[in-house]
Amino acid sequence: MKRLIILLLVVCLSQVAVHSQANDYARYIVDTLASSAFFGRGYVNDGVNLSAEFLAQEFEKTGLKKVKRKYEQGFNIKVNTFPGEMILKINETELIAGKEYLVDPLSSGINGHFEAVVVQKEELKDPGTFKNIVNTSAGKFIILDERNYVKESAEEDKKLIEYVNFIKYNTQLASRGTIILTSEKLVWSPANVQLSKPVFIVSKEMELKNPTSVAVHVDAQFQEKF
Asked: Residue 211: what pLDDT?
């Protein structure tokens, strides 16, 4: 009986050791891929291919069989990239990219100083205000402040979203770009198209005084085959 208990104990301990080793290896893989050396595993600094090469090396170490003599299966995607330095100043206050603002992934590039008009999202409910924005924003940046907006009905909110998208993306509006002021957490994802105007999403407590000016620089490059 004692021998049986000892045998069961040895088996259990060996399973614990194997499980612990598997956890350690999984943690190593996750920590490595999540490190700054892989640049987010996306198109920035070729992080996606660096990640693929690392995984292929790990497959080799563990003895996985290759498919057609290799582990990789290549393919191309369309992606809108932002390879250069970004600058956004509002009334001479320079904001920090990635911390205080993000560039909308659909944005085109831009460089220059522009006059800006500030609009509260709530004001878009008024047809006269919306028409005035369309008529007076040519050559300017529109700063749309959503921070104090309170959602109402789903129908009303849907209508406002349409107005906001018109301001951000419609080429009939002769503005040079849009800055959205939000109290929401900044979240970014890539886009497979590039539209005609830049859009900045800003999450920062700041008071805006008219007249307002902005200075911007964004280098956007659309890649058909990344």
From this structure: 66
